[in-house]
Design a protein that fits this description.
It is a single chain. The chain is α+β, with helices and mostly antiparallel strands. The protein is built from 11 helices and 9 strands. It folds into 2 domains: 116 residues, Chitinase A, domain 3, CATH 3.10.50; 150 residues, Serine Threonine Protein Phosphatase 5, Tetratricopeptide repeat, CATH 1.25.40. Strands 1, 2, 3, 4, 5, 6 and 9 form a 7-stranded antiparallel sheet that branches. It has a two-stranded antiparallel ribbon with strand order 7-8. A hairpin with a 3-residue loop joins strand 7 and strand 8. The radius of gyration is 35 Å and the shape is elongated. 36% of the residues are buried. Keywords: Isomerase, Membrane, Repeat, Rotamase, TPR repeat, Transmembrane, Transmembrane helix. Pfam families: FKBP_C. Its EC number is 5.2.1.8.
Length: 368
């Protein structure tokens, strides 16, 4: 990609400029990383146990990248939590599709152990934390939400999406509208830079953090120019994530990201195009054609849309020919009609009748 667009794109802009090999800066639900595979209990991890604190240990499930957060960094993370003794899961942000915002050094008392673990992680890292009850829900536990028994050691499966080194530990709720939009926009730009380096997973983490700043509760409060400003950051993050997912061949997730944008802007050409691409690859031909035809209404001269429609037509033609050959072979060739055998008695009889008729005509003429 030559350069990253910085303004919200017009609906009739060329999809050639925003194909699956490029990234754009255009925006709601929360993007999330690949979900943990085993949902029956804490994951089984064989990696080395790292002692972070007398009451906190860590085992790495997936390596991260970059630096670790420092004190007062605003961290965004997904996690699942179980009581160690009963294996009862009492929290799951992946299931809720809403990452947790945690400011290191300003966390709630019951999350002290979790914060110690997060403080040792890199962006994109996933780990299993063992936290003693003293740094979790304590001697009394919690009888509301979440429901944790007294003196319960806790297991956390944690993924650090990313973090902001704000310096003063300002949480999203304490930011002004402009500050939240600005923080999200910086994340979007970081994601664009990572995309250009083909670091797709890292890029998606940045987009997820940007979207986290633009959560549903925040968007619900915005009107007029502030909502337009937020969408100018949020929608591109969803579309950029879809571009990454297409490259990673995660087509169902790409469709979901485009659908989020289309719920806000039903005529978004880029969202229609990318969703159509994913649907076509999955064999959802009718739905893909519908997306491309709708996109063509707003970009009638776009060559990429025309090419995709042509590919669908060629594919359907090939499928029809294949089915035709299949059915032809199934029933076999049409049998040729057999020539009827002649009955010589009838032939002789017909000859005699003809001869008699001729003789009769000649005699009649002679008498006349």
């Amino acid at each position: 990609m030559a350069e990253v667009e910085e303004e919200l794109q017009q609906q009739n802009s060329s999809v050639d400029q925003v194909g699956t090999d490029e990234i754009i800066t255009e925006g709601a639900s929360v993007v999330h990383g690949e979900l943990p595979q085993d949902d029956t209990g804490p994951p089984k991890v064989d990696s080395e146990v790292e002692v972070l604190h007398e009451k906190v240990t860590k085992q790495i499930i997936k390596e991260g990248h970059g630096q670790k957060p420092t004190k007062y960094a605003t961290c965004f993370l997904h996690y699942r939590a179980w009581t160690e003794s009963t294996q009862h899961k009492f929290e799951d942000t992946w299931h809720e599709q809403q990452p947790l915002e945690l400011v290191i050094g300003k966390e709630k008392k019951e999350m002290t152990g979790l914060a110690i673990g997060v403080n040792s992680m890199k962006s994109g890292e996933r780990a299993l934390l063992h936290v003693g009850w003293e740094l979790a829900y304590g001697k009394e536990g919690s009888f509301s939400f979440p429901n944790v028994p007294p003196t319960a050691d806790v297991l956390y499966e944690v993924e650090l999406i990313g973090f902001d080194e704000t310096g003063e530990g300002k949480a999203r709720g304490d930011m002004t509208v402009e500050e939240r939009i600005g923080a999200a926009d910086r994340r979007k730009m970081d994601g664009n830079a990572l995309f250009k380096e083909e670091k797709l997973e890292e890029a998606m983490q940045q987009y997820e953090m940007a979207i986290a700043y633009m959560g549903d509760d925040f968007m619900f409060q915005l009107f007029g120019k502030f909502r337009d400003m937020a969408l100018a950051v949020k929608n591109p993050c969803h579309l950029n994530t879809a571009a990454c997912l297409l490259k990673l061949q995660r087509y169902d997730e790409a469709i979901a990201q485009c659908s989020i944008v289309l719920a806000e802007d039903e005529n978004n050409v880029k969202a229609l195009f990318r969703r159509g691409k994913a649907r076509a690859i999955l064999g959802q031909t009718d739905a893909a054609r519908e997306d491309f035809l709708k996109a063509r209404k707003f970009a009638p001269q776009d060559k990429a849309i025309a090419r995709e429609l042509h590919l669908i037509a060629e594919h359907e033609k090939a499928v029809y020919q294949k089915q035709k050959e299949l059915y032809k072979g199934l029933f076999g060739p049409r049998p040729e009609p057999k020539p009827k055998s002649k009955n010589w008695l009838i032939v002789i009889w017909q000859w005699l009748l003809s001869l008699f008729y001729l003789l009769f005509r000649r005699k009649t003429r002679k008498d006349d």
